[in-house]
Structures are given as structure tokens and as C-alpha cells.
Amino acid sequence: MDESLSKMTRKELNHYIQTKREAMRRAEMMGVENEYRVLERQVIIAECYLIDLSQIENGKIYKVISQDDHYFKVEYMKGIFVWGFFVNGDEKESAIPVSMLQLPKQVR
């Protein structure tokens, strides 16, 4: 799409995500893993723009969605990414999209 994700309405974002998920299903059925992974990342980034960023608190630990027993301590946020550390990780600062955090009462 030509339009930036940050300028899309909620309805446009949901349509974009739905279209990418359909393409992911096709790629998975065809066994094209690299295409599937690219589409998956596009969905993760688009979902960031549906999140109320005020729900994210610095210093708080959140579960990472779709990864069993992975937790992330948020140090700060920059744009749609949170920076911090994986709990029990290698202690290197990392950044992940905000849509990967399990937030209370997420509205997507």
C-alpha cells in the first residue's frame, strides 16, 4: 500500500491486516516460508498502530505474545517499539514491536 500505516484509520488497518493474513495462509499452504515470515512481520507492525500506547509502562514486565514463558521488561518506548530486556535473557538491550506485548484488555 502506498499510504503509511501510521496514517491509516482503524478500519483501513484492520483490512490491511486481514489481507496480509489471507496471504499468509496461502503462503503457508504453498510451503513458501520466507514469504510467510515477511507477511507475518508486516502484520505485527500494522497491529502496533491499533494499540493504545498509554497502556505500556516503563519498568514493567510483560509476557511476549505467542512465545511460551518469554517475558520482556520495558525500559522505554520509541515510536512503535519498546526497548528493554528479555527476562532471563542474555542481558543485551533489545527492541520489539509493541504488538508483541500481552497487554491488559487489548483492543485490536
Automatic annotation (TrEMBL):
Xref: Pfam families:
DUF1811
**Annotated InterPro entries:** YfhH (IPR036289), YfhH-like (IPR014938)
Q: What is this protein called?
A: DUF1811 family protein
What gene is it encoded by? Answer: yfhH
